[in-house]
Write a structure and sequence with these properties.
By secondary structure, the chain is mainly α. It contains 7 helices and no strands.
Amino acid sequence: MAGELPTGKQADLGQRLVSLHEVVARLRRECPWDRVQTHATLAPYALDEASELAEALQAASEALAGDAHEAATAIEDLVSELGDVLLQVLMNAAIGEQAGTFTLVEVLETVEAKMLRRHPHVFQRDPNAPEPSDDELSVQWEAIKAAEREARAQRIAAREARKS
């Protein structure tokens, strides 16, 4: 299937993720700057990195229509910026792990569940059924988002009720 890793690369992906997770955990233990970071102190960096990623995405998109050298440089920049955003995720997960509030595994499980829930037309569709139209997808998206907002409101209300 397009976009899937070739045989053998799945293990490489897992090993690279575990290795980077270990690097970040060591930084949190041994680097004076990284050790004192919190979710709040990292927030401005997350915004900066997201902005730089958006610029790199635009530049790569434009460069791919140009010459090969320009495209290669833009893709190299894009890969670097994607790494910087991933680092923000891993640093915040490491903070959560150290605090005992959440783990990287929970982050991965949560985003996977969200993608499965938000894409029933991919993961729950009868393979013989026609693909939904853009209008049908838009209606489906709004219904899913409304259900997510309602579930979040209920979680917040329950949390507030427990506080009282």
